[in-house]
Amino acid sequence: MSTKSPVSTSQLLANIANSMLSTGPRTEEGKAKARYNARRHGLTGQFYVMDEPDRLAYNEHEKEMLAVLQPADYYERQLSIDIAQDHWRLNRVKGIEFNSYGLGHHERAAETNADSAETEVAVTHAQTWRADNKAFSNMALYETRIHRMITKNKRDLEDLQAKRQAAEAIAREEAELLLADQLAEEETIDQSGLIATGLLSQDTIQVNGFVFSNAVLLAQMAHKQAVAEARWYKSRDWDRSQPPPFVLLTFPKAA
């Protein structure tokens, strides 16, 4: 009975390189499997070949990253996807490093005569690094470059978001002023609240390219006024004999 000798790291890398020269699956079954492994990214249009577990894991990773980064437009989303992909690559290179040490342990464990399992692992790890330290150095260099790309893209994204949020805050303030001005002019009130006319009758208001929901703005304005009124009375030990030194607006009741 013949035994199969372990494949060296150099031979394994050579096998991988040779496999990249393959013409691909030739049977209809093989071609069908290859087609099912191919995926196009829904947002970037990039074409990937991933097995199903990796695809699901990556999709969840990207979803969670975008939820944290909160891109608001196409360019912000592209930068956010770049950051998510680079973090995935960073995780992958760490996995390759761990797996390389594991492969080294598999190949060299028989050569080590240690007095404990911990010593054996330590020695085989050292032997693996000494035998292939250039590859490990390249991994570290690769990791450093990915970190730099993440840092740059994150800085660009934060700059874009800061500018957008500043412009949006100005537009929101102007929208609130326009609605407050119309509320102050409203005089006709029935039991259900203000009769909506003009801007108040619309579902949205657009200012400087930003579109806001009137219902949301009015609810926020009502909350701000309620807080300001409460602070005024608190500063006077809740003495309500004098009204606040600002006009109290009457807001439409929610439908």
Features:
two-stranded antiparallel ribbon, 7% strand, 7 helices, 64% helix, 255 residues, 2 domains, elongated, mainly alpha
Please give the largest β-sheet.
2 strands, antiparallel
Low-confidence stretches: 188-192
How many structural domains? 2
What separation lies between the terminal Cα atoms? 83 Å
Quick recap:
The chain has 7 helices and 6 strands. It is mainly alpha-helical.
What does this structure look like?
The protein has 255 residues and is mostly helical. It has 7 helices and 6 strands. The chain folds into 2 domains: 134 residues; 50 residues, no CATH class. The chain has a two-stranded antiparallel sheet with strand order 1-2. Strands 3-4 form a two-stranded antiparallel ribbon. The longest helix is centred in the middle third of the chain and has 53 residues. The N and C termini lie far apart (83 Å). About 2% of the residues have low confidence.
Topology:
Layout: H1 9-19, H2 28-37, E1 38-40, E2 47-49, H3 52-69, H4 74-108, H5 117-131, H6 133-185, E3 189-190, E4 193-194, E5 204-207, E6 210-213, H7 214-235
